Amino acid sequence: MTNNDDFFKVSFTDLSATKLRPALVLSQKNKFGDLLLAFITTTLEQEETDVTLNSPEGGIKKDSVIKLSKITTLNKSLIVGLLGKINEDTEKQVNQKLKLLLNL
Question: Which residues pair with 35 in a beta bridge?
Fold first, then answer.
């Protein structure tokens, strides 16, 4: 079971990829087993809609950025392992930045 505040290691191509990337679950509400994910990177250069994720929040080892302008849909089968959960304050920031990004 996944929640909207979980972040995971993900294979963004297929399961043969050796490098796994972190991603935040934005939505899991569909009947096909797909997740809407935002990329997470340790490259700290930020855009207006990015959210800072400070170590050790959720168990991350390095300060990171949730790139809300880099969203993808992947099947749950490409999820490899749970990294952690964002805290309530970060979740609020994500929701505010998504509204800004989507002009809501």
Answer: 74
